[in-house]
Write a structure and sequence with these properties.
Elements lengths: L3 E6 L8 H9 L29 E8 L9 E8 L8 H5 L5 E3 L6 E3 L9 H5 L6 E4 L6 E4 L5 H5 L5 H5 L5 E5 H17 L6 E3 L9 E5 L17 H31 L6 E4 L4 E4 L5 E3 L9 H7 L12
Parallel strand pairs: 1-10
Antiparallel strand pairs: 1-8, 2-3, 4-5, 6-7, 9-10, 11-12, 12-13
The chain binds iron/sulfur cluster (3 copies).
One iron/sulfur cluster binds next to helix 1 and helix 5.
């Protein structure tokens, strides 16, 4: 299978948010119940991606090029979701192997059953994409981000967001072909009065498997022009064998303790206050003869020493 890409063409997007909804539907992601939603007061809702929302359409207004536009202000719609970076720093730092790059398609996939909730991927991502939800375990966060719909791609389908887009603002296919279409569209936009139009995610800038045609340029659409991988990613790579070894030793230690504990059978003992013998509770065997153990209960000892307690000297 050739390397794949999703192409988002902002000049065709009507911001209907059908893709947002399709993503929720296919991935069975909840939406906040009425009254619980934190609305932004703008058309952009929710205001950002979150533990239940992998994709949003962003709404930015921008000054339209005067020469060709009939309106002074234009909408610079954007797609905010995982960009499926070719280098995928989130996958590089993930100690649990929960994030991996699919070598066939280039999509960066997630196996949330392997996520240990460390959130390293969040600090490694140049686009601030990974979000988390709680799986019900106390304090345990599980990553949620766009998986590139690799399950659908594997079954010969397009990603759910692409399949639902009516004006063809989303396309999916071989990355080379998507890049060619994007470059041709930018050329056309340049010729038609949009001099800042550009392609985000191309090979020269920062290679990703989500390409964007940005009608008004990077900034207007809220896209990074020069994304960079944080320096901490390299540091994590140095530390990874160390943290891996520590984790490994911890697991070995716990395993050894479990093995030892498995062979340990605690003996249950009973005391006979009449004979003062200590017996094996299960077999009745006398373990110790004539041991003068104290037959009073703990409560009797406590109360007899209280000034006004039962058995105390002032209790008459
Ligand atoms: S479905 Fe298509 S047109 Fe609608 S918001 Fe998404 S990308 Fe834009
Ligand atoms: S590719 Fe799939 S998971 Fe990613 S945004 Fe589109 S529908 Fe959602
Ligand atoms: S955009 Fe962020 S989460 Fe997506 S592949 Fe790149 S680094 Fe990973």
């Amino acid at each position: 299978m050739a390397e794949k890409a999703i192409l988002f063409d902002s000049s065709k997007c009507t911001a209907c948010k059908g893709c947002q909804v399709a993503c929720k539907c296919w991935n069975d992601l909840p939406s906040p119940a009425a009254g619980e939603a934190k609305w932004s007061g703008t058309h952009q809702n929710p205001i950002d991606i979150n533990g239940d929302t992998r994709l949003i359409i962003t709404f930015n207004e921008t000054e339209a090029p005067a020469a060709y536009s009939t309106k002074p202000i234009g909408w610079a719609f954007g797609r905010r979701s995982c960009q499926h970076c070719d280098d995928a720093p989130c996958a590089t730092v993930c100690p649990g192997g929960a994030i991996t790059k699919d070598e066939e398609t280039g999509m960066v996939t997630v196996d949330d059953s392997k996520c240990i909730g460390c959130q390293y991927c969040k600090s490694a991502c140049p686009f601030d994409v990974p979000r988390y939800y709680n799986d019900g375990t106390f304090g345990k966060s599980i990553i949620n981000k766009c998986s590139g719909c690799v399950d659908r791609i594997g079954a010969g389908m397009e990603p759910a967001c692409v399949a639902t887009c009516q004006p063809d603002a989303l396309k999916f296919g071989d990355r080379d072909e998507m890049l060619k279409i994007a470059n041709e569209k930018v050329e056309w936009l340049h010729e038609h009065g949009y001099p800042d139009a550009c392609v985000a995610g191309n090979d020269e800038n920062y290679k990703t498997h989500v390409l964007h045609v940005l009608k008004y340029g990077y900034e207007a659409h809220g896209q990074l022009e020069n994304p960079s991988i944080p320096a901490t990613v390299a540091m994590t790579q140095v530390m990874k064998p160390v943290t891996g070894a520590i984790s490994g030793l911890t697991v070995v230690g716990l395993g050894a303790m479990f093995a030892l504990a498995a062979g340990y059978d605690r003996r249950r003992l009973a005391y006979n206050p009449e004979t003062q013998d200590t017996l094996d509770y299960d077999t009745g065997e006398v373990v110790q003869h004539g041991d003068p153990q104290d037959s009073k209960s703990v409560m009797e000892h406590i109360t007899e020493n209280l000034p006004f307690g039962k058995g105390g000297k002032n209790h008459e």
